């Protein structure tokens, strides 16, 4: 999973908001105050001025990110290049060597590159060299708590509640035949499981509360705009929306904490663990919001896409179903038992090892849908060497997923969803070091991989056991191929074209 951010990433809004244009004029007044330092001699080539405007910087970073990167790479002798976003100096990297430095260099900070959702969320400072991590210990605190909460025994313990959650949400779908938008229905299931695992039981167990909370998260996600990077000091409408939604989330969790304190009520959940550890309220809320956000944004989208890819291909659909049926039958051969009970019979070991096809399906869904750039910052006092160039101290560093995940020299027909590319005899993802980075890589692997895989396998396995389904548009026209991702997007996003799952209950006795 990718760490959530408010500042640098995640905008859904392709163009600068109106307010940004409105302030553009006045911004020019600031021009002289915002003059940029001379370009460091050994840093990669600076993009020409039409790509890298005064004051604003690289507008195409927001409007057409992949095209922007590809042009930058093409016009640079080394494939690395520099540009500005407002007052932030950024190095864009590409190629095998740079990728390894990006993932492995110990002088690059991830929290300083990304920003945390709450607590004033590091507004990346203008003055170069200044420490942007407003909470220096937060990342390690976050990692410690996540690692505890996502321990295997907890996952195992939660499998049964997860199955009940999934079944209950699927029960709410129109029962006979129908179509569902997985980016709503499956998305909500992921939110529920994530809330159950790293959030609060009160919310996970109450659909009304659950949906309300999801709305707040979505508001925050959608109201993060490029403006907040270029003019971090500017109060925009989006900024207010985000602040209000953030405030409501804060009060929601604070209310739950207060209630438990006053009534002495306890729950068996992450919130209780954090309270028991004596964490202060701000850390608790920051933790939960950050963890849920990271899980939701990525897994919610991936899980939905995985089902739509499987439903678009009869070939893979049949194979996945055979794999799932095989495991379910192995642990619960009696097909007359309720499905919930049959799934509860599958141990965690089986979820982790007996679904290789699901794993390949997920891998290729992630490869196609992991959009945008990753971030780091050189937090060392010195420059970091990369080939014959350097990344100056304090610079931000970006690497675009497509540089590796859509590289035709690594992945044949890179825009095609094809799980067989990971079969041991092809193993395209092992052609070069770090050429599949969907679960993070190097110094920053995703902390939630095990949980994310488990929940996605559960959802897909239950869905394909419970229903006959295929993938279609909103008029019911079958998709042989899921519409391609918008590679210029900034992060995992719901698709723009309508994509539905058309399902009917499966006759298990057949
Ligand atoms: C669920 O939450 C809603 C809104 O917070 C509340 O009105 C309702 O009573 C709750 N339902 C249950 C079963 O606790
Ligand atoms: C899905 O995609 C994200 C990025 O969008 C990736 O980092 C993450 O590992 C995947 N999450 C899953 C499969 O839960």
Automatic annotation (TrEMBL):
<protein>
    <submittedName>
        <fullName>Cytochrome P450</fullName>
    </submittedName>
</protein>
<dbReference type="GO" id="GO:0020037">
    <property type="term" value="F:heme binding"/>
</dbReference>
<dbReference type="Pfam" id="PF00067">
    <property type="entry name" value="p450"/>
</dbReference>
<dbReference type="InterPro" id="IPR036396">
    <property type="entry name" value="Cyt_P450_sf"/>
</dbReference>
<keyword id="KW-0479">Metal-binding</keyword>
<dbReference type="InterPro" id="IPR002403">
    <property type="entry name" value="Cyt_P450_E_grp-IV"/>
</dbReference>
<dbReference type="GO" id="GO:0016705">
    <property type="term" value="F:oxidoreductase activity, acting on paired donors, with incorporation or reduction of molecular oxygen"/>
</dbReference>
<keyword id="KW-0812">Transmembrane</keyword>
<feature type="binding site" description="axial binding residue">
    <location>
        <position position="446"/>
    </location>
    <ligand>
        <name>heme</name>
    </ligand>
</feature>
<keyword id="KW-1133">Transmembrane helix</keyword>
<keyword id="KW-0472">Membrane</keyword>
<dbReference type="GO" id="GO:0004497">
    <property type="term" value="F:monooxygenase activity"/>
</dbReference>
<comment type="similarity">
    <text>Belongs to the cytochrome P450 family.</text>
</comment>
<dbReference type="GO" id="GO:0005506">
    <property type="term" value="F:iron ion binding"/>
</dbReference>
<keyword id="KW-0349">Heme</keyword>
<feature type="transmembrane region" description="Helical">
    <location>
        <begin position="12"/>
        <end position="34"/>
    </location>
</feature>
<dbReference type="InterPro" id="IPR050529">
    <property type="entry name" value="CYP450_sterol_14alpha_dmase"/>
</dbReference>
<keyword id="KW-0408">Iron</keyword>
<dbReference type="InterPro" id="IPR001128">
    <property type="entry name" value="Cyt_P450"/>
</dbReference>
């Amino acid at each position: 999973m990718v760490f959530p951010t408010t500042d640098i990433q995640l905008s859904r809004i392709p163009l600068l908001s109106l307010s940004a244009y409105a302030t553009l004029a006045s911004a020019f007044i600031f021009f002289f105050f915002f003059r940029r330092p001379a370009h460091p001699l050994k840093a990669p080539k600076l993009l020409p001025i039409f790509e890298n405007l005064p004051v604003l910087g690289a507008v195409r970073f927001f409007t057409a990110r992949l095209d922007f990167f590809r042009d930058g790479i093409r016009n640079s002798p080394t494939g690395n290049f520099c540009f500005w976003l407002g007052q932030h100096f950024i190095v864009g990297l590409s190629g095998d060597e740079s990728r390894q430095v990006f993932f492995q260099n110990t002088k690059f900070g991830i929290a300083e590159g990304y920003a945390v959702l709450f607590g004033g969320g590091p507004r990346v400072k203008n003055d170069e060299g200044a420490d942007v991590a407003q909470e220096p210990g937060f990342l390690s605190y976050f990692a410690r708590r996540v690692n505890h909460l996502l321990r295997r025994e907890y996952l195992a313990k939660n499998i049964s509640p997860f199955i009940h959650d999934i079944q209950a949400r699927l029960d709410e779908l129109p029962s006979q035949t129908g179509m569902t938008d997985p980016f709503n229905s499956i998305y909500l299931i992921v939110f529920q499981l994530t809330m159950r695992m790293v959030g609060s039981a009160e919310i996970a167990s109450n659909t009304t509360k659950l949906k309300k909370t999801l709305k707040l998260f979505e508001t925050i996600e959608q109201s993060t705009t490029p403006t907040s990077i270029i003019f971090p000091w500017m109060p925009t409408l989006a900024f207010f929306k985000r602040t209000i939604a953030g405030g409501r989330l804060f009060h929601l969790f604070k209310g739950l904490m207060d209630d438990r304190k006053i009534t002495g009520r306890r729950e068996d959940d992450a919130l209780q663990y954090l309270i028991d550890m004596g964490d202060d309220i701000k850390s608790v809320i920051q933790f939960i919001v950050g963890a849920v956000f990271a899980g939701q944004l990525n897994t919610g989208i991936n899980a939905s896409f995985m089902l739509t890819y499987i439903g678009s291909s009869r070939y893979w659909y049949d194979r996945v179903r055979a794999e799932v049926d095989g495991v379910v039958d192995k642990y619960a051969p009696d097909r007359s038992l309720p499905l919930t009970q049959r799934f509860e019979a599958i141990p965690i070991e089986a979820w982790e090892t007996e679904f290789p096809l699901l794993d390949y399906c997920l891998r290729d869904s992630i490869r196609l849908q992991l959009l945008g750039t990753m971030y780091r910052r050189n937090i060392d006092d010195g420059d970091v060497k990369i080939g014959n160039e350097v990344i100056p101290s304090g610079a931000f560093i970006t690497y675009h997923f497509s540089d590796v995940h859509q590289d035709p020299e690594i992945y044949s027909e890179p825009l095609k969803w094809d799980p067989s590319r990971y079969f041991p005899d092809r193993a395209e993802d092992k052609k070069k070091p770090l050429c599949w980075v969907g679960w993070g890589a190097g110094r920053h692997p995703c902390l939630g991989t095990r949980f994310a895989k488990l929940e996605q396998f559960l959802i897909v396995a239950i869905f394909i056991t419970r229903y006959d389904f295929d993938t279609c548009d909103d008029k019911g026209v079958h998709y042989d191929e899921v519409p391609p991702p918008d590679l210029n997007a900034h992060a995992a996003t719901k698709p723009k074209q309508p994509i539905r799952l058309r399902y009917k209950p499966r006759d298990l006795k057949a």
